C-alpha cells in the first residue's frame, strides 16, 4: 500500500480521489436511468418484465414476479441451519438496539388554554432494495427491514434481482422472511426503484425506498426523490483505521481488506502515528492478499483508493479522520475511548482491537447502512427515525388567542400577507 506523510496537499488529494467515487459524479449513466424510470412509469409491469429479461436474463411475468410461500419454504431447505440460527441471533441484537431509538408522541398543556405537541407516526409503507451481483447480502436485508418493523411500518416490501432461473438467492429469501418482509418481488436495478416509486400493476407504490445498490440504483433513487422519500445515495464502502504503535498490524491489515473486498471502488485507509506500524501493515496486507479470495478486487481497490498515512501525533491523526469522515472508523490506540471523544465525523465508530468492522456488519446491533463519501459530516446511520414522520399539533382556545391575536396580525402585515392577518382578525371582529 502507498505510504504517505500527512500534509495539506496529501489530504486534499485523497479527499479529491475519494469524492470521485460519489454517485453524483457519474452523470454519464443518468440518461439511461432516466429512460428506464420513464418507461416503467409509463408502461408499468411490461417495462419491468422487459428490463428484467434484458439485464438479468430472467423470464418474469405477473404470475411469478411475487415470491411465493413455496419458494420461501424451498429456500429454507437450501440454507444451512447454522446460518438461520446466526440470522436469528443477529435480528435479536438489531431489534434491541433499534428499540432504544423509538420516539413517542408528546403533548404539553398550559393553564392559559394552549396545547402544543408532536405526533409521531410510522410511515404506511416502505420498499427495501437488496442488491444481487458480485455478492449476496442477507445482512442488508436485516439492517433495512428490522428498523422499519420497530418503527411500526405496516407494509414492508422488498425487491431484489432474480437469477437467470427466475429465483431469488435462498439466503436472501430466508433473511427476508426472518426479518419480516411482507412481500418480495423479483426485480432489481433502476427498474425496481421506479416500480417502488410510482407503482405498477403488480408492485405497489411505497412512501420511502431504502437499501444500497449499484450506480444505476443510486442514480434512480436520486431521480425519484421527491415522489418518494429515500434513505441516502450510497457510494462504495470505506474504512479508516486510526492506530498508534500499540496496534496489532495483522488486525489492522485484515480490517482494511475486509472493506477492500467489497468492490474495486472501495476505500481502505490507515492513519497512524507509527512509521513502523505503517510498514508492518503494508507487509501484512501483501501476505493476506495471497491467501484470500477476491484478490483482484482488493488489489484494484487498494491501488486506486488505499492509503497509509503517517501523522505526527494523535491530534493530527484525529484531524485527518474528521476531514475524511469515513463510513467505518476503527480506533486502535493506547487509549481508544479518549480518541473516540474527539471524533466528530464518522458513520460508525469501532473502539479497540476486538471491535472489528464485520462485527457491525453482521451482528452487534447498530445499523450498517451508513453515510459514505464524506457525508458523515451531515448524515447519520439508518435508524428508526428513517421510518417515522412527525406532525406538529397546535391548539389555542379563544381565551389563549385573544391576548396575542393583534401581535400576529401585525407580524403578518409586516410581511404584506393581508389574508394571513385577516384570518386572525375575523375571529375577533365583533370587538
What does this structure look like?
With 431 residues, this protein is α/β, with parallel strands linked by helices. It folds into 3 domains: 3-22 and 235-365, Nitrogenase molybdenum iron protein domain (Rossmann fold, 3-Layer(aba) Sandwich), CATH 3.40.50; 25-230, 3-Layer(aba) Sandwich (Rossmann fold), CATH 3.40.50.1980; 397-428, no CATH class. Helices cover 45% and strands 16% of the residues. It has helices spanning 8-19, 30-43, 45-56, 69-78, 81-99, 138-151, 170-179, 189-198, 215-224, 249-260, 275-289, 295-305, 314-324, 336-341, 357-362, 398-401, 405-414, 418-425, and strands spanning 3-5, 106-109, 114-122, 125-129, 155-160, 183-186, 208-210, 229-230, 238-243, 267-272, 306-310, 328-332, 348-351, 388-396. The strands form 3 sheets. Strands 1-11-10-9-12-13 form a 6-stranded parallel beta sheet, with helices on both faces. Helix 8 packs parallel to helix 9 (215-224). The model has no long low-confidence stretch (mean pLDDT 94). Pathway: Amino-acid biosynthesis; L-histidine biosynthesis; L-histidine from 5-phospho-alpha-D-ribose 1-diphosphate: step 9/9. NAD(+) binds at residues 129, 191, 214. Its cofactor is Zn(2+). Zn(2+) binds at residues 259, 262, 361, 420. It catalyses: L-histidinol + 2 NAD(+) + H2O = L-histidine + 2 NADH + 3 H(+).
Question: How would you concisely characterize the structure shown here?
Answer:
By secondary structure, the chain is an alpha/beta fold. It is 45% helix and 16% strand.
Amino acid at each position: 500500500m502507498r505510504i504517505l506523510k500527512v500534509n495539506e496537499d496529501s489530504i486534499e488529494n485523497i479527499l479529491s480521489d475519494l469524492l470521485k467515487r460519489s454517485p453524483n459524479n457519474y452523470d454519464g449513466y443518468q440518461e439511461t436511468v432516466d429512460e428506464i424510470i420513464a418507461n416503467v412509469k409509463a408502461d408499468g409491469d411490461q417495462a419491468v418484465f422487459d428490463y428484467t429479461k434484458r439485464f438479468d436474463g430472467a423470464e418474469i411475468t405477473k404470475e411469478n414476479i411475487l415470491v411465493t410461500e413455496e419458494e420461501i419454504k424451498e429456500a429454507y431447505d437450501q440454507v444451512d441451519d447454522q446460518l438461520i440460527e446466526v440470522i436469528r441471533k443477529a435480528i435479536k441484537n438489531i431489534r434491541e438496539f433499534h428499540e432504544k431509538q423509538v420516539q413517542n408522541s408528546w403533548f404539553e398543556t398550559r393553564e392559559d388554554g394552549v396545547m402544543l405537541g408532536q405526533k409521531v407516526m410510522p410511515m404506511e409503507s416502505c420498499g427495501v432494495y437488496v442488491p444481487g451481483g458480485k455478492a449476496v447480502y442477507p445482512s442488508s436485508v436485516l439492517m433495512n427491514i428490522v428498523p422499519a418493523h420497530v418503527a411500526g411500518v405496516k407494509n414492508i416490501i422488498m425487491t431484489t434481482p432474480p437469477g437467470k432461473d427466475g429465483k431469488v438467492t435462498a439466503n436472501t429469501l430466508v433473511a427476508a422472511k426472518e426479518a419480516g418482509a411482507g412481500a418480495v418481488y423479483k426485480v432489481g436495478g433502476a427498474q425496481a426503484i421506479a416500480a417502488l416509486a410510482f407503482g405498477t400493476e403488480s408492485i405497489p407504490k411505497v412512501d420511502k425506498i431504502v437499501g444500497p445498490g449499484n450506480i444505476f440504483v443510486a442514480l434512480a433513487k436520486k431521480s425519484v426523490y421527491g415522489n418518494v422519500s429515500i434513505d441516502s445515495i450510497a457510494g462504495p464502502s470505506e474504512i479508516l483505521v486510526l492506530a498508534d504503535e500499540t496496534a496489532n498490524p495483522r488486525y489492522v491489515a485484515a480490517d482494511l481488506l475486509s472493506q477492500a473486498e467489497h468492490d474495486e471502488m472501495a476505500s481502505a485507509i490507515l492513519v497512524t502515528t507509527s512509521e513502523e506500524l505503517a510498514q508492518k501493515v503494508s507487509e501484512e496486507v501483501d501476505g493476506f492478499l495471497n491467501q484470500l479470495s477476491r484478490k483482484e478486487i482488493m488489489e484494484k481497490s487498494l491501488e486506486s483508493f488505499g492509503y497509509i498515512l503517517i501523522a505526527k501525533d494523535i491530534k493530527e491523526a484525529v484531524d485527518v479522520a474528521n476531514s475524511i469522515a469515513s463510513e467505518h472508523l476503527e480506533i486502535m490506540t493506547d487509549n481508544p475511548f479518549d480518541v473516540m471523544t474527539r471524533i466528530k465525523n464518522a458513520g460508525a465508530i469501532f473502539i479497540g482491537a476486538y471491535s472489528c468492522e464485520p462485527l457491525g456488519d453482521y451482528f452487534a446491533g447498530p445499523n450498517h447502512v451508513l453515510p459514505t463519501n464524506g457525508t458523515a459530516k451531515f448524515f447519520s446511520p439508518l435508524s428508526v427515525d428513517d421510518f417515522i414522520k412527525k406532525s406538529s399539533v397546535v391548539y389555542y382556545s379563544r381565551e389563549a388567542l385573544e391576548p396575542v391575536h393583534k401581535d400576529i396580525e401585525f407580524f403578518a402585515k409586516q410581511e404584506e400577507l393581508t389574508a394571513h392577518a385577516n384570518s386572525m382578525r375575523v375571529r375577533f371582529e365583533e370587538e
